[in-house]
Amino acid sequence: MPHVLNIKNIKLSYLFLLMVAIALFNSFPAFSQDRIKKEIQRDIKKLQETPNFERDTTYINLLHELGREYNQYNLDSLLIISNQTIKLSKAIKYAKGETEGYIVKGGYYSDIGEQDEAIFYFIKANLKARTINDIGLTLFSYSELAKEYMYKDEYAKSLKTFLTGIEIAKENKNDKWLPVLYINISVLYSLQKEYDQPIFFLKKALEVNERNDDQKLTGIILSNLAFTYIEIEDIEKANEPINKAINIFEDLKMNSWLTYVYETKGTIFLKKNEYDNALFWLNKSEVLHKNIDQTRYKIPLYLLLSKAYFGLKSNEIAESYAVQALKISKDLNNLENRDEILQVLYEIKKADEDFGQALNYLEEFKAISDTINKNNNIKELSILKSNLEFEQEKEKYISDSEQKNLLQRSYIYFSILIILAFTIIIVILKRNNKIQNSLNQKLIENTHALKKNEIHLNGANDTKIRLFSIIAHDLKGPINSFKSLLDLFNKSELSQTEFMHFMPQIGENIESIAFTLNNLLTWGQSQMNGLSTKPDFIPVNTLVDDSLRLLSKQAEGKSISTINNIENHAITWCDIDQIDIVIRNLISNAVKFTRAHGTIIISAIEQEEFWQIQVKDNGVGMSDDILTNIFSEKETSSTYGTQNEKGTGLGLRVCKEMVENNGGTIWVESEIEKGSTFYFTLPKGEKE
């Protein structure tokens, strides 16, 4: 009889269906989960006959409900629906609908194996949910985000995200989401082979769920508990919870979950080497899988079927299932279970005495095994594990100390009465001084207000002087030159051909004047009246593309290459108009001080809470003296560019104020004849 391989990774892979399913039936409580697609489509069609139906939140909610119906069967339709609900929600400023749309869209990318895209949309959903203080959607997005980190083997991030969600659920006494998060975190610990922790959390989930009497969730908890017992080789304990779970899901007719519990039941028989019984349950799962459009979950099923047929010495059938599993794994670029699939194929080929092919599978198995190195993740998890254990001990301590607290509360109440009495006495004693202190405080406030107004007036006056100085010296020259040309042309002292010869230079001068006026007006407004900052989620690469397009003529005139390396997922929380000014000024300066055939590169580095944007050129660079005063508020100086381009010296001061208005910082690094790099940071999300 051939060796039966360990199946732990197979079932863990399928456990991820848990988080998708739970999220879907917990996130939209306003609608019945048992409605069929035809009923939803009928309601949508009826609503479409009313005026302005696309601006009705009920219509958007119905689309979300329809999307949930398509979740298991048609992922392409799910993507179309999510895009539509996001667009409609934005149009009517329906933040909840927009948030739900991001979660659904993230779920689509998760199901097709594109984890980075899924993470991007779950982060957007999380930021939006916290902005509108929707606890349910906040917990939903945390759960989905943690799940995606788990898919990417970033277990430390996953654990931290789950813990954050658990804390929020506890603080808000959310008994619907708390057991869900307990279940999901148990999956994470199962991946690390910390089996005591999964049992602990699953039992806590059962305890909390008893208050809700949610049969679906009970079935999920029991099925995961059965799997955990399988992992610790306690097969007899696994039978009871999996049988209960099968009964629950068959009564509820939940096919997606039935595929999972049937596979778990088949796994129990595989553990016992009872291959015929295992095939009975695995075949039941395969039949249901035909109507479910979630390809990656076929990987563990086909691997289990391969093992069962291999156990029955039906090597040809076993090989066909293993090959199908391997193909899906490679198509989805999913390393999950890849090592076990290759090991099964190696065993099959070795049993068939096809040693050449067996060797090929063995070599590929070793290469994949090296890639799937989970030791680092185990180390990462241990860093945060102590925090979780502390919380468990704290909960236990609270439970054990409840009786003691009753006695302590009586002492506390008595102490509060004494403190209250003293407080009343103190209030009476201080009451006579209150009016005098209030008058003194008003006098101090009025004095401060007068001083503040004086400073503001002096500053406004200084600003006016600087503006007139700049207009006189930097704008008067090019405007007078343009006027002189027009006078000559009007007096017929300059022919039309000669006048047209000067048009390119005139155009450049006008563009320079417009750019300078924009900086002057922005800076003057910030100095005299202050700026109104209206932040939103902004893709930085779009602003960079716009600025490069506007400055392309200047760059092409000097044969300068401009490269935008910023990716689409670089989303920042900022005022689009202000940051557009910053980016345009920095790129304009780079063009100005870069020699012909130079290069300008704009890129972004992701940090924990910020995006760090950098504009790098290989131009003339700056000396230490210039670097010291480059952002100075007292100095207003300008330097000629490599082709005698002139500026006002205000651009970088405007950049500094705009960046700081948006919660970021700006700085520069430079070296003579080697170029300069300007850096500035922008927050990823709204500051709480």
Helix-strand category: alpha+beta
What sort of overall outline do the alpha carbons produce when their principal axes are compared?
A: extended
Q: What's the story with the biggest beta sheet? A: 5 strands, mixed
Q: What is the CA–CA distance across the termini?
A: 63 Å
Query: Percentage of helical residues?
Result: over 70%
Number of strands: 7
Q: Helix segment count? A: 27
Low-confidence stretches: 1-35
Task: Please compute the radius of gyration using only Cα atoms.
Answer: 34 Å
Strand residue percentage:
5-15%
Average the pLDDT over all residues and give the rounded result: 79
Main-sheet strand order equals 2-4-5-7-6
Keywords for this entry:
7 strands, alpha+beta, 5-stranded mixed beta sheet, single chain, two-stranded antiparallel sheet
Describe this structure in words.
The two termini are 63 Å apart. The strands form two sheets. A five-stranded mixed sheet has the order 2-4-5-7-6. It has 27 helices and seven strands. The model is unreliable at 1-35 (pLDDT under 50). The protein is α+β, with helices and mostly antiparallel strands and 688 residues long. Strand 4 (599-606) and strand 5 (610-617) form a beta hairpin. Helix 3 (57-70) runs parallel beside helix 5 (95-111), helix 7 packs antiparallel against helix 8 and helix 10 (196-209) packs antiparallel against helix 11.
